């Protein structure tokens, strides 16, 4: 079920955790302060946790998926991640400890009074580090999995058709339904969007990671989709292709959601026709479209983005008000160039760790999170309604709601 990147990631965490356990075992053996059995337990735990994520979980989820299952995942991830993060500082402290032990005067024992205080400090610091890092990892994981923000945005368009004045659109992106995002949480996110008065819901990819949850995902979409009187739209993310795009598509087709892939459709031919309780005199039409996810690299990536955009826009009338769905925020460049009024993206999860945002913007995602504008065009990058790993620092999950208003943007 898991992609190769995820398995490699978990193995890397396990190797770091084992390294931390190994150094602590050596220090503990010299100082006679640590139980060998505890080290063996940590070693075995760290090297086997990734099997829980990569192999065991899909079968557990198929039969029973509860908050307890999610809690086990968070706790186990916190332990392994905490030990992994502890490896560098523990390694430095280990080198200091063994260097001082090697440099001790002849006849002096490790436990002698002379010179003991510094080694004792290094020893205690070494054992304190993983406790701190595991606690920090647990706090970030719990916060990341529990807190879901509702962000509201009022967007002004001088040429907005009169029947769309006050129209509300909600966005859910990157739920990654699986170990760290339960089907019930998708329902809660949809209820939150409906509570904010959204007329329609847009899901911008990466909906589900565990195919064993396809059925409960379908049930949630069928039940909660009724909350949005003008329906739901969906565009593909990269994880749909990683998992099984055929099976996910087949599930979505049973929910009433409209699947868009390098195409657009006319929501209203004008005057609010086709929308619930919407009327007006403006004859201009309203379209929604979506581009597919591009896996191209380098110059081919830009070329394929342009191709996808051309195919998506080819049936859209020039005077129409248009909303674009694009999982990857790189499409914002093309959207601004085409003067598309509103583009909704995801994929980045907002970086998840706010202090790293400047580096991520500079090296990977110039459009990382939040609202961007270019003249009369807007683009929004959702921070992610879920995540495939719940590590978040000052970057909560979100459901975003946009209210369209006719007029000039406030200065």
From TrEMBL:
Example GO molecular function: hydrolase activity
Stored Pfam families: Metallophos
Keywords from the named record: Membrane, Transmembrane, Transmembrane helix
Keyword NADP: no
Protein source organism: Megasphaera lornae
The Calcineurin-like phosphoesterase domain, residue ranges: 168-350
Residue stretches in coiled coil: none
Transmembrane segments: 6-27, 39-62, 74-100, 121-139
Protein name (record): Tat pathway signal sequence domain protein
